[in-house]
């Protein structure tokens, strides 16, 4: 209680100090005797304080500042004013206007060479893109801010931006790049001895390795974070580190160590009166007992966590504890209590509109009802679970609901028929009795017939009863079968969703179209994966030189296989290309392919198996100088085509070809160094980089391969057209040739006019 009172006092003092600070800033701004720059700076900090708390009021103040800055005409203050307005729009989630104002601020800062404020503006733009879920643009602007921080030799800001880039890559997620930037940030943090950044980086690295199931490395970094946290004495931070380490030991199935660290975390949480943290520790113990099949002990600790969480407002942590309690009762066979706790968890999840937890709780309720034999309720809750699950992944669930309605309609109709049959049977009995009275005199003569009729009627009634019971059994089995069918469909959908998400990750390694267009003004890229994700990829790197003559590298590559295996190989090969030019500083295309081959082989040799996967590639380097454009090219199994424009010495158009080295980038039996070719070309020359997918496509009237000869003719026939029209022609020709046949391979074709 004393700690809570102290916290409230500190909070009140902080709020009071902030209010006093704002009052002081307002007085400075209103003092017309002070210099304009002093007043504007006061208003700048005042607006920056108000906007996060009240964006609408902050927007009014920001616009007032902008008007004042325009009036006095000081560019430095004007840039700050545009920044403040951009920040206000960002907090109002009007990201389009936010970017517009930030861009104006950046333009002004560039014009007056104010590097510090330009860096801050780029940071604001990066933050804005992150909040709008545009992660690639967020990374781009953090990188721009990072470049300026390096120029200013501001090591702390370098560390900050590297950490932010790592954080965004982790959200995407792109684990290799996340690790790369966290490690760079950590290196600087250690050099400048920034304890706070070291802890953040260690925790970030631990989280990434844990997500990749590299638990040994995760444990190493979490332990380093713990050691530093102990030195600065933050008890809450120490407890968090203990929980992280305990979780890693739990996943390693080292339950003894996991229990020891949960115990240490629990001791601190109790001392801090942190009930939420205490409950989380209990959940950790319960998970350990559950894995060891000590279900009674697991239930005991889930109940402890639930009892604490129920005294707190509804939260994800509360829902997890309550639903896990229900799941454990389900494992123990107490389905009524399982139903009770699962429903409680469902109520809390619906109260705070948590779709994921509502989805899971509906599933737990459905399972409990199924075990209790109430299949109608089980279906209703399972359909709710499916509907929510589909809404999370933006899919339609109308088919399942329609099936359920059909089942109910069929059941209703069968009941009506049963009632009707019973009524008709009663009517027959009544008629028989009446005839018996009227024809009593001939009883003995027709007695035998009536006996037969009676026996036959009893037989029919018995068959009807058996049939009705069989129908009920079939209905139950049918519902159970449909229930299992839904589970199978759900798993299949999860696999497809995972592959679709992998497509987004693979696209993250491809260079953005606007980057390509910025450096290569006239180009097209025809990229057609065979499956959702591809083995083909295209790659680009810009090497900026001090004399202004940039090296532009661009490549079309075909990794071994296609689909999921091809995509995995493509990521390895793309990373190897990046490393060859960025870390090893290579610029000669042949040497780049040699080093990339070394890196790819080194990566696959770690598995201990003889893996010969790699890629075929056509790699082009363009150097734009004042005199003329210089071309350097190397190829692994993929050739280079180029066409020079007509002139007096070149009356006939032909495709010139440079043969590639007959070996892949990867492990091969007779490896040789890759050759580098220099090309002297005329202005207007078009270079074509391609993989084999286009030429290998089956189709046409006889279902044969298209082949390279026909592709050459298509390109030559349409060479006089602009490249965007060539793209449309080639894409249309490919689809027309393919027709109704399946695409046989990934297709990549890049054209560049120099």
Short description:
The chain is an alpha+beta fold and 754 residues long. The chain has helices at 2-30, 36-53, 55-72, 75-91, 95-111, 115-131, 135-151, 155-171, 175-192, 195-211, 215-232, 235-251, 255-271, 275-291, 295-309, 316-331, 335-351, 355-371, 375-392, 398-438, 443-509, 513-519, 563-582, 589-605, 707-717, 723-738; strands spanning 523-528, 536-543, 551-559, 614-624, 629-636, 640-643, 656-658, 665-666, 677-680, 686-690, 698-699, 704-705, 747-753. It is globular and about 105 Å long.
Describe this structure in words.
- The structure is a single chain.
- The protein is α+β, with helices and mostly antiparallel strands.
- Among the domains are: 126 residues, Serine Threonine Protein Phosphatase 5, Tetratricopeptide repeat (Alpha Horseshoe), CATH 1.25.40; 99 residues; 244 residues, Phosphatase 2c, domain 1 (4-Layer Sandwich).
- The protein has 26 helices and 13 strands.
- The strands form 3 sheets. Strands 2, 3, 4, 5, 8 and 9 form a 6-stranded antiparallel β-sheet that branches. Strands 1-13-10-6-7 form a 5-stranded antiparallel β-sheet, covered by helices on one side.
- A hairpin with a 7-residue loop joins strand 2 and strand 3.
- It is globular, with a radius of gyration of 36 Å.
- The N terminus is likely disordered.
List the helices and strands and how they pair.
Layout lengths: L1 H29 L5 H18 L1 H18 L2 H17 L3 H17 L3 H17 L3 H17 L3 H17 L3 H18 L2 H17 L3 H18 L2 H17 L3 H17 L3 H17 L3 H15 L6 H16 L3 H17 L3 H17 L3 H18 L5 H41 L4 H67 L3 H7 L3 E6 L7 E8 L7 E9 L3 H20 L6 H17 L8 E11 L4 E8 L3 E4 L12 E3 L6 E2 L10 E4 L5 E5 L7 E2 L4 E2 L1 H11 L5 H16 L8 E7 L1
Antiparallel strand pairs: 1-13, 2-3, 3-4, 4-5, 4-8, 5-9, 6-7, 6-10, 10-13, 11-12
Helix pairs in contact: 1-2, 2-3, 2-4, 3-4, 4-5, 4-6, 5-6, 6-7, 7-8, 8-9, 8-10, 9-10, 10-11, 11-12, 12-13, 12-14, 13-14, 14-15, 15-16, 16-17, 16-18, 17-18, 18-19, 19-20, 19-21, 20-21, 23-24
